Amino acid sequence: MSLTFVKGITALQLLERMGVDAATVAVRDQEAFHDEFGSLLFDMDAYVVSAGRWGDWAWVWEHSSWRCVEGTQLLCDVSAGTVAVVLHFSGGPAEFRYAEDGRLLSAFSWEATTELTDLVGGTPSRFDSELRKHGADPVAGDYGPLGPRELYLRLAEGLGIGLALDDLVTEPVLSAQLTPP
């Protein structure tokens, strides 16, 4: 699962920043979403996404691509004038990326290292107090009792990021396809 969150913009604005194919944008219920995109959900070149809003944060779930994880440029682009966070969880890797005003400022990847290391700044100093609050030791590189996935979720929650499960699996949401890079 690859989720991108951007503060202070709408879901449609986030899709536009990510390069949405405007002809595919619509609010679809889950049945219509699966009727239209179901055969593409496991095709990593289909770029199927759904989008919504949680509080001050717009979110996009990349169902069949990892564009905000494959490189840092798209995350930097969507963070222009605001803040953006990527949470990525799959069978193995777990990632947390934080960008502000067009610059990647912090990135943690459990796949890249089994130690808690900020891949951008060398140490996770930007989030030290939040990490310690959850039992991690940034100086020793220890994730603590939560492990990487849960720790990354807690970092996101500390920023005010959330997501209603119903938006992912039952409620109608904005959905579309991104244009290929």
Radius of gyration, CA atoms, in whole angstroms: 16 Å
- Taken from the alpha-carbon principal axes, the silhouette is globular
Q: Any low-confidence stretches, pLDDT <50, length ≥5?
A: none
> Helical stretch count?
7
Structural class comes to alpha+beta
Task: Kindly report the spatial arrangement of strands forming the biggest sheet.
Answer: 2-8-3-4-1-5-6-7
* Structure summary, number of beta strands: 8
The helix content, as a percent range, equals 25-40%
Tell me what portion of residues adopts beta-strand conformation. 25-35%
Whole-number mean pLDDT: 91
Distance between the termini: 20 Å
Output the helix-strand order. Answer: EHEHEEHHEEEHHHE
What's the story with the biggest beta sheet? 8 strands, antiparallel
Task: State the gist of this model.
With 181 residues, the protein is α+β, with helices and mostly antiparallel strands.
Describe the overall structure.
The mean pLDDT is 91. With 181 residues, the chain is an alpha+beta fold. The chain contains 7 helices and 8 strands. It is globular, with a radius of gyration of 16 Å. β5 and β6 (94-100) form a beta hairpin.
Key features?
7 helices; 181 residues; single chain; eight-stranded antiparallel sheet; alpha+beta
Map the helices and strands.
Blueprint: E1 2-7, H1 11-18, E2 26-28, H2 30-37, E3 48-54, E4 57-62, H3 67-70, H4 73-78, E5 83-89, E6 94-100, E7 103-109, H5 128-133, H6 147-158, H7 165-169, E8 173-177
Antiparallel strand pairs: 1-4, 1-5, 2-8, 3-4, 3-8, 5-6, 6-7
